[in-house]
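Could you join me in thinking about how sequence relates to backbone shape in a protein? Label the sequence line and the structure token line clearly, so we can match residues to local backbone shapes. Once you have written the record down, we can walk along the chain together.
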Amino acid sequence: MAKCDICGKTTVAGMTASHSNIKNKRVWRANIQKVRVNVGGSNKKMNVCTRCLRSGSVKRAV
């Protein structure tokens, strides 16, 4: 579902702790965008996280 096709980043589960140290389960989801990407000279739709887009790991199709 929410997985980056470049770096493999996905959801992470953990616990939140309130001031009184009451623990609750929660999920951190990766910021995944569906983007048209230039791969090997052809354009392709991929699910990419915003960190890969910002760092230049992926070349956006124009």
